[in-house]
Structure formats: C-alpha cells, structure tokens
Amino acid sequence: MKWVLGVSVIAIVMGWVAIMTIPAATASIDDASLKFLPPETKGIVFIDVAGLRNAPLVQDVLKDKNLVGQRDWGDFVAATGMDPERDIDKVTIGQLEGKDGVVIVQGRIDKFKIEQFLKDKGKESQTYLGQTLYHDGKNTFVIMNNLVLLGQLNGVKKVVDQMQVPGSSPLRTDLMAAIQTIDVGNQIWGVGDFSVGDLSNLGVRGPAPALEMLKSLKSGTYQMHVDSGIQARAVGNFTDVESAKNIGDLVRGALAVAKLQIAQQQPDVVKLLDGIQVTNSGSTLTLRIDESGELLKKLKDLRSMPIPGQ
C-alpha cells in the first residue's frame, strides 16, 4: 500500500517546490475528513487529487515518462479493480499530538476487494472498537467503502476512537481560523503548528544556522493552485520579528546568489527564480510563487546543467 504515501508525498513536494489572486472565497475542511480528526489535531494538509489530475500542467507531466517514470500497480489493480492514479480523489493528512498522524484517502475504494487482497498477502490484522486494523510493517490500515485510513498504529487508534464520538468534535479554534484564510480553488493547502522536528520528520534538511532560526517558527499556512502553471503562497508565523527577518534575508540572499551563478548557463532558470518573492511583515514571513508551466517543464534540464566551480 505504499501508493498511498506516494500520492501524499508527491503532492506535498509539488507544493513546496512551487498566489496569484484566486476567487475571494475561503476553503473549508472536507466533511468526510472532519469526523475522523480528533480535537488534538495540530496540523492539516488537504490534497484535491482529482483537481490536480485535471490540471493541464499535471496532465502534461503525467504524459512525460522521463519525469514520472513507469508506474505499474500490478497485482493490486488486478485483484481490486482499483487504479490509484484514476480512483483516488482526495487525501487529507492530519498531524496529531506527538509524532502521531493519519492519512485519510477518499475515492472509488472497494472495501471487500481490498480487504481480501490484504488477507491474500498474509497481512496481520486485529479488531479494535469494531474496526479491522491491518498491519504492513509500521503502517496500519482501516479499509472502508470509498475510504482508507492509514498511519502508525497509535494514530489510527486515535482516529477510530474519534469515530465513536457522536457528531464531529470541533477542531481547535485557531486551526479553523487558519483554514478560513485559504482561498477556494487551491488543490493543495495546509495549516497548523510547525517545528524543526516536524520538518526533520518530513526529510527536510538544511544548513545548521537556518534550522536554528526555524526553531522560532510557530505556525503557518500553505496554499497552491495548479492550472497551466503554479501559483502558491506560504505564510510562516514566528515568535519574534528578528527571526522572521533573518529567515527572509537568508532566502532572499540565496536566491540572489543562485541567479548570479546560473545567469549565463541557464537564463530561463533566472526567470523561474524571479517568480519567487519573499516579504516580511513583523513576525510574519510570506513566500509567493508564480511560475508558468513552460518554465517549470524546463526544470528537467537542470540535471545536465553545469555547476559553477566544478
């Protein structure tokens, strides 16, 4: 079931690599996901996979086998009739207290066929509060019609506990307020608390001074809209003005150095970097990205770009 994590990671990475004004209405948390997220949830990432799939830029990328590689779901598709590329519509990732988290996948999911597939593969299972939990290494799954819950055992159990609560327990007020700042039409968005530890868990690495400054990052929002290009906005809230300014200066400096280094070898990449703007306002840092699809497609040529000084 690594395809679930694959879809999630790909979507998040697409977002952080890449807002123009989008219609002035706000997004809302998906009702089907809300009932699974306990009040202790401290961060949410939502991915409209169906919306991304229909975006012209994504369709072009999926056609380029050199960018995405060959994908073969093999026995899974044959046994379940489900093609993840076609049948997954929405992915919600909830970060709970500690390191617990859960992924909620919605789409055309046949509970009986997928459970039979897991049984045929010899996956261990247990019953918890009326739900069957399947184990695959460190991952635990709960399969429902048109929905899959995925995460480590402790996080999945917390979600199953939440399912027993009548109605939907409210999320934190600050989290709901942050969701209301997300513009409608974004296929990817995220809100919540962040820390250097959370970034490390996602595999984010960087210079020690930068990571030290990021210790003052409290919370933030991210939103991305994909059509023929990418428009994105990330807002970070820091504990103090100086930390926000230092991170902003670091990013602006890195962009300036990169432009100087590649100006002659790859002028098109300079245009790409020009689409990244970093601004400060008090203890808030805002990163805006506006890139055309044509420029983004040229990223694949970076592999062969000569590195200055080498």
Word description of this protein:
- With 310 residues, the protein is an alpha+beta fold.
- The protein has two domains: 2-18 and 33-163, no CATH class; 173-295, no CATH class.
- It is 40% helix and 27% strand.
- The chain has helices spanning 2-17, 31-34, 49-54, 56-63, 65-68, 74-80, 84-87, 111-120, 153-163, 173-179, 196-201, 208-213, 241-262, 267-274, 293-297; strands at residues 43-48, 88-95, 101-107, 124-128, 131-136, 139-144, 147-151, 188-193, 217-226, 229-238, 276-281, 284-292.
- It has a twelve-stranded antiparallel beta sheet with strand order 4-5-6-7-3-2-1-8-9-10-12-11, with helices on both faces.
- The longest helix has 22 residues, at 241-262.
- It starts with a helix and ends in a 13-residue tail after the last helix.
User: Which stretches of 5+ consecutive residues score pLDDT under 50?
Assistant: 1-24, 303-310
Largest sheet: 12 strands, antiparallel
Task: Note the beta-strand portion.
Answer: 25-35%
Order of helices and strands: HHEHHHHHEEHEEEEHHEHHEEHHEEH
